[in-house]
Amino acid sequence: MSVPESSRDSDLPDLAIPGGGRLLSAIELRTTDDADLVEILLRLREAGGEIVTINTFPATKKSEGPDVTRVFDIELRDLDALTAKRIAETVPGVQVAGARPTLGQIFGKRVIVVGGGAQVAQVALGAVSESDRHNLRGERISVDTMALVGEENIAAAVRAVADLPRAHILVLAGSLMGGEITKAVRELREIGIPVVALNMAGSVSAEADLVVSDPVQAGTMAVMAIADTARFDLDKLRGRRY
Amino acid sequence: MSVPESSRDSDLPDLAIPGGGRLLSAIELRTTDDADLVEILLRLREAGGEIVTINTFPATKKSEGPDVTRVFDIELRDLDALTAKRIAETVPGVQVAGARPTLGQIFGKRVIVVGGGAQVAQVALGAVSESDRHNLRGERISVDTMALVGEENIAAAVRAVADLPRAHILVLAGSLMGGEITKAVRELREIGIPVVALNMAGSVSAEADLVVSDPVQAGTMAVMAIADTARFDLDKLRGRRY
Question: Is the pTM of this model over 0.80?
Answer without folding.
Answer: yes
